[in-house]
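Bug #77: duplicate submission created two jobs. Keeping one. Sequence:
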Amino acid sequence: MSAYEQPPLDLGAVCQRWRNRRHSWRPTGEGGFDPARYRVREMPNGLVHTAKAFVLAHHYSGSWPAVRLAYSLIDTAAPPAGQLVGVLTLGIPTQAAVLTSVFGRLTPYTQALELNRLVLLDEVPANAETWLQARAFRLAAARGIRGVVAHSDPEPRTRLTAHGPETIFPGHYGTIYQAKGMDYLGKTRPRRLTMLPDGSVLHDRAKSKVRNNERGHAGVERRLVALGARPRDPGEPGRSWLEEALHTIGAHVVHHGGHHRYAAYIGPRSGRRLTTTSYPYPKADQGGAAA
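Kept job's structure:
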């Protein structure tokens, strides 16, 4: 059974898939996932560029976060020597407090990480995501990771096309984290986001690089030029160029109500309850689709 674009009314009965930054759905009851056919492998530093290219091509965000460990899902039945059909990454969040506020006794970035990307192609049968997550966590625990924080974004994303707005991400509330038994810690604080016409977010840190001519500003500028902004002239102040560029490409600011936040101990601490307050799991009618 192939993936399909529109989910049934029961969003809890489907799981999300991706291809070329477009989402689709697979019913959880379809069957067909054969664990013997798949392998989960940690990607060495020399192959992380492969994971990055995969995520940039297929994940709705169109971005690559700060990744420390990357895990591949390989379909061994695909010739000639298996095919990459999924990626899960663990990495460094925007600030250490994301980890220390949950795992006070774990060293951030070495013992605690954020699950910051999980994307499977639309050809992968249902229920593969929890299988991938369990095995990736097992491999991460062998590397000394003891705590993982994960976020799910309930806000939909759209991008502008020649035919008008297109939904590339309907929002989700973290079904796979619930299936793994992770604790639900509520929502992060609301914030304002700068949305680009391709459906991606231009984060405050990226804008700061351009305004202050900091390291990495050229990559941010190339991203905006690709969306229709003119190139920045030599010596032109970054602040004024950025303001013009965002106006030119039609960027807009939206209010985001916050991400759902999950966390769990892994490895020898697996099953240990968090000392922070946990809450009942959110459901589809509380914001977002299943994923």
